[in-house]
Design goal:
Blueprint: H1 2-9, E1 18-22, H2 28-35, H3 38-54, E2 59-63, H4 70-94, E3 100-105, H5 122-128, E4 131-134, H6 163-172, E5 181-185, E6 187-192, E7 215-217, H7 218-228, E8 231-235, E9 240-245, E10 248-252, H8 255-267, E11 272-276, H9 285-295
Parallel strand pairs: 1-2, 2-3, 3-4, 5-11
Antiparallel strand pairs: 6-7, 6-10, 8-9, 9-10
């Protein structure tokens, strides 16, 4: 890990290196047990800061994607406060810049699809976290194989499951726009159309399409589209893209939708954007489109 951080720091301009703890496949209970107990919190906080310093990381990211209830959210507020306090003390004690703290979170500030909704501690995140990373994707997928869908659309007139709602919910919950970093996917979701002649967003489907469990990386999507002579459609109403070839249907982001989403993020005064994950791009196509849009070059 030391070589990784040294390589990033050697870039011109220098890049910041973050160590993320957790992830989509991390079980929720260990996080819940850690944050609900003061001794466990203290041990985790000390260990995370020690590891960050040992390997030259500039920041730490908590990627707890599935808090279970409102009690977990209350404990999360306490954790963020103690994490920041310990970070500040360590920085002053050794006379070095403090470690940046961030959190990868559900797309919206409230788990409003749960039977009993629970809400992130927006005030604590505003006070103690340097930035918040809403994961603005996976809105549609293999859990509903009856209709096609845009997995990371910016706008949805029929529901609150969209990136525009995501960002507005966090701001309303007290997190400043400049602390929000909008997540975008470098992969798409696939379906099998019931009728190849009915192929819009929301078209009837009868299962997942190509890819691994109905998921395809952007690199693979481009290759699939070329190999199959797919029709590619940019949908301006949702700011998303889809392609279809025969009964195969793929919802994803292409350079056009990425540019418009990044322009939206900039117009909203957000702190930035992130991708999951750069390794699945096609010759830096999406990354370049986003960078140019953020700089105002396109």
């Amino acid at each position: 890990m030391g070589n990784f951080t040294a390589t990033l720091h050697a870039k011109n301009p220098s890049a910041k290196a973050f160590l993320s703890v957790g992830g989509a496949h991390a079980r929720p209970d260990p996080f819940s047990n850690m944050e609900g107990n003061s001794d466990n919190r203290a041990a985790f906080i000390k260990s995370s800061i020690d590891v960050a310093r040992r390997y030259g990381f500039d920041g730490l990211d908590l990627d707890w994607e599935s808090p279970n209830n409102q009690q977990d959210m209350s404990n999360l507020a306490v954790f963020f406060r103690e994490w920041r306090t310990s970070d500040n003390k360590e920085s002053l004690a050794y006379g070095r810049p403090r470690i940046l703290l961030s959190a990868a979170v559900y797309f919206a500030s409230k788990f409003f699809l749960a039977d009993v909704p629970w809400t992130y501690p927006g005030d604590a995140m505003k006070e103690y976290v340097d930035f918040v990373n809403p994961m603005c994707y996976d809105y549609r997928g293999s859990w509903d194989t009856t209709v096609t869908g845009s997995p990371a659309l910016l706008y949805d007139n029929a529901s609150n499951i969209s990136t525009s709602y995501s960002i507005s919910s966090w701001i309303e919950d007290g997190v400043p726009s400049k602390k929000l970093v909008m997540g975008m996917p470098m992969y798409g979701k696939t379906w099998q159309l019931k009728d190849p002649n009915v192929h819009g967003i929301g078209a009837p489907a009868n299962g997942t399409g190509p890819g691994n469990g109905g998921i395809m990386s952007y690199d693979d999507i481009v290759a699939f589209n070329l190999a199959n002579g797919a029709n590619v459609v940019y949908d301006n109403d949702t700011v998303s893209t889809y392609s279809y070839a025969g009964t195969n249907w793929i919802g994803y982001d292409d350079p056009t939708s990425i540019r418009n989403k990044v322009k939206y993020a900039k117009d909203q005064g957000l702190g930035g954007y992130f991708f999951w994950a750069l390794g699945t791009d096609r010759n830096w196509t999406l990354a370049r489109a986003a960078s140019l849009a953020w700089d105002g070059s396109t």
